[in-house]
Each structure stands twice: as structure tokens, then as C-alpha cells.
Give the backbone structure.
Amino acid sequence: MRTRIFFKLLGAFLLVIAVATLTLDFAVRRAWEASLYSQIETTLRQKVVLFAGQVEHERDRPLGEIAAEVGRGADARATIIDSAGHVLADTQANPQEMENHASRPEFVAAFRGQLGENTRVSHTVGIPFLYVALPIRGGAVRLAYPLSAIRDLTHQVRRRLALASGMALIIAMLISAAFAHVVARRLRRIVAFAERITHGDLSARIDENSDDEIGQVAGALDRTARRLENSFAALENSRRQLETLLNSMQDAVLAVSAEGRVEWANGVMQRVAGRVRLNAPVAETVRDPDFLRAVEEVLRVKQVRTARCASLVPGHSFDVIAAPLAGSGVVAVLHDVTEVERVEKTRRDFIANVSHELRTPLTSVQGYAETLLDSGIDGSTREFLEIIRKNAARMTRLTEDLLTLARVESGETEFSRTPISPAAILGETLQSFGEIAKAAGVALSSDDRSTRLVHADADAIQQVLANLVTNAIKYAGSGGRILLGARDAGPGVEFSVQDYGPGIPSEHLPRLFERFYRVDKARSRESGGTGLGLAIAKHIVLAHGGAIRVESALNHGSTFYFLLPEATVPAIAEVGSN
Ligand code: ADP
């Protein structure tokens, strides 16, 4: 690079100088030759006039003498001829031996009374001459100047010109070499600067004060480097902030590249997974199949996925949320739920134990109250006994529901799932509730439009429908109507229980499936509700890998929907519980 630019510039300069010198030599020589010729011509004309005058005035002097004198004075060959063309005198040849000159072009013109002029090689002397002739009385005079003198002079001048050009060339060469050297050095500095930037050294600066094009290029590069450095500093700053933030989190965070390699892990992740090797395949770092499946799925479908991983650290469970990264890759956040799960389990166990312990005394209270009632007691004692029986029955239902909920929530209840047709499920519900509905004055019907089988535990789904239908009968009221339905939806079959009762105000809908959540507490209690029916239904549906929801409008009734997966496809999604 160094030599190339330098020699290229130098070569270009030398070429320009050489061309300029040659052009100058050619042009100047031509002009100079022309000017010399015209000068000689003018001088010769003047001298021939003087020559003619001298011959005219000094008639008594021998012509040879005058010619010799003029020839010497003019540094030219002088010739005098008579009107017949015979040479009377000549400074370079013997007139007697010279041929008749009447036909020489310059004499032809002179005999016509003009100034004759001609350039040619002399017959007499054999070299090129410039001839100028003028008429005189009885003849003509002529001066001839040898053009070889012009050639000699020209050669002399050209030699000097060549010498001067050579010197100019040397000086120009030195100047252009210095200039090329300076330019090449400036360019080399720009190249070195650009190379530093390429290698990531953004602190590199180039100090170019000149405002020529090279200076402008250097300035533009310098500004670019400055701006890049600022942007990188800002980026680095926000990266550090983000890293600090992620490191101060209590959750483990892991970034995985599109190729499934570990890109980054925060401090918690390093502790949880032992040693995290950057750029290693994620499967070597986090050996948990559920986690790896979630990450792999996010990489494939580019959507958020959740998972629960239990085999990463023995005795610990993590909730995993894996989300696609903006460009490519995945970021996974692992939240340790071991403690939450432990507390939850303690709570569930406690509720299950209490419910279990209450079961026997409640059955006993209920039994004795019924026995006493059967013994024919009357009056206010009977009334009290009735209240005792009713409340004992309610408490029994409550403990039963609590136990059921605790078992479903803990996963203790084992569902025996088989492929069943929605028609069979709806048929059984219609059969179980036909009489009850009739007694309540409610019309119960079903509309099955499904074409698929569902993968479900028939008894558990019957319980879900029973809870929903019980509520619907309760709220539809006498003269009301309930419609059971099933249709293919998404990856399974969606069941529905629709009533045309009072409906539920929209602000209650998001919390409706929480345990003990009731819209109207008094009415629920009055109707013997425990506030757990919907919570149980929700947990059973979730345990099936399905989903439950409600749509309701005040005074237009409510429709409860739940989705069960199709028998041939796996569960829809594992969703967290309330
Ligand atoms: P409960 O034993 O009180 O019925 P649930 O969990 O079954 O408890 O229902 C919770 C609450 O949801 C009920 O108290 C009631 O306010 C409301 N609800 C449930 N089903 C309906 C329905 N079909 N129409 C109106 N409100 C309903």
C-alpha cells in the first residue's frame, strides 16, 4: 500500500511533467524558429534595400567591392546581376562561372519591380538559403542568408531548453516525490486508523487539520469513530445496568441462542445449575427435560411457554417462563417455587386433616339429630333440632367439598382418563338431573354438536357438570331453561351449561372460580351452597389439561364453558392454579 500509492502518485506527476516539457519544447521551438526566421527575413529585407541603394549611389565603385562589403556587413551572400540575368558580382562564387540567374524566382519578382523572396537549396553552394532580391537600374541585387544558421541556432537553443527542462524535471521530481510522500503518509495514517476501528479500538482518533479532500475523509471517519464510541459506551452502560439488574434478581435467568447454546446466565442461574459454561449446549447446563422441552418449543414456535421443572436441583421445583428474544434465541426465567409449594401443601394438608377430623363428629351430630326428629318430638325443640340437622348437613357438605378440593389441588386424586364421547357425558348428566330439574320446574335439554372423543375421567367430568348444573338450576329459577352443549373447538371439545337466569355482574367474573367467592353470600348460603363448587370444577378441568371460563350478562343468564382435550392429542396446556 505504502509503495503503491507513493509510486502511483510519483508516476502520475512525472508523466505530467514529461508531457508538459515535451509540449513546451515543441511549442516553444516552433514559435522561436518562426520568430527567428521572420526576424532574419525582416533584417534581410532592410539590408537588401540598403544594398540596392548603395549600388545605385556608388555607381563608380567596382560592384565586386560593394557586394563584398555588404555581404560582410550583413553576414550574407550578396549577388548583383544585370537585367539579362548575368551575374555581375557574387561574394561566394566567381561571376564568370555562374549560370544565368534571370529565372531565379526572387529575380523574376524583382524584374517585375517587386521585392522577390525565395527559400531553396542553392545550385551554386548546395545549402538552403533565404533569398531576397530588389530591382536596381539595369539589374537587380540579392542577399542570401544560409538557413543552416537558423538550424544551428535552433539546435543551440534546444540544447539549452533540454537542459533547462531536465533541471526543471529533476526539481519537479523532487517536489512531486515530497508531495507524494506527504500524501501517501497521510493516507497511511488514515488506513492505520481505520484498521484500529476495524479491530474494535473505538478510542482511536485521527488528527488531520487540513481541509482538503483527504482531511475531509479523515474528519468524517474521526466523527464516525467518536459517534460509534459514544453509542457503544451507552450500549455498554445499559448492558451493565441490565446485567446488574438481572444479577440482583432472585430468579434464575438464562439466555439461549437460536442454536441452543448458552449465551448468558445471571448469578442465581450459576448457583442453581452449578457451573454454567457459556457457548455450551443448553442441554449440558440444565439437565431437566421439561425445561429443555419448553426452550426447544419457544425456539420453534417463537411464543411464550411455561413449564415446571423439578429435576434441576434435588428437592426444588421451579416455575419456568421461556420467551422468544427480539432477534433470535430464548430467555428463560426460573422461579423457585419450592417454599410456596411447601406452604401450599401444608395448607392443603391442614384443610384435608381438619375436614377429615370433622367428618365423623358431624355425621354423628347429623345422625343423632335425625334420630331425635324421628322420635316424634314437637314444638320448638323440633324446630331447634331441624336447625341443628340442617347446619350439620351443610357442614358435612362443606367438609366434603373441602376434602375434594384439597385432593384435586394436590394431585392426590388419580383420574382414570379414557376416550369418551361428549354425547355419553351429556346423556348421563341429563339422566342424573332430569328429576331434580323437573322438581325445580326447570327445563333441561342438551345439544351435542361434537364429532370428537375427549380424553377424560368420566366421574370427574360428571362432577364438573353436576356443580355447574346445580348452580344453573339454582339460578334459573322455576319456569327457567337450561341448555347443555358440546362442540368441537381448538384442540378438543368445548362443553357448555347455559341458563337464562339473573346473570352475573361483570366485575365478579374474573374472581368467580376462586374458592369461597360468592356474588351474593346470603343467597348462596340460603340455597345450601358452599362457595366451592366452581373452584372444584376449575381444578378438575385444569387437571385434565383443559380450561374453564364463563360468559354472563346481567339479566340475560350465564354460560359456563369448559374445554377438554381430544382423545388423540396431548393436554392443551399446564396452567397454574389460583
Ligand atoms: P355456591 O356453592 O355458592 O354456588 P359456587 O362456587 O358454585 O358456590 O359458585 C360461586 C358463586 O358464583 C355463587 O355463589 C354465585 O354467586 C355465582 N354463580 C355460580 N353459578 C351461577 C349462575 N349460573 N348464575 C348466577 N350466578 C352464579
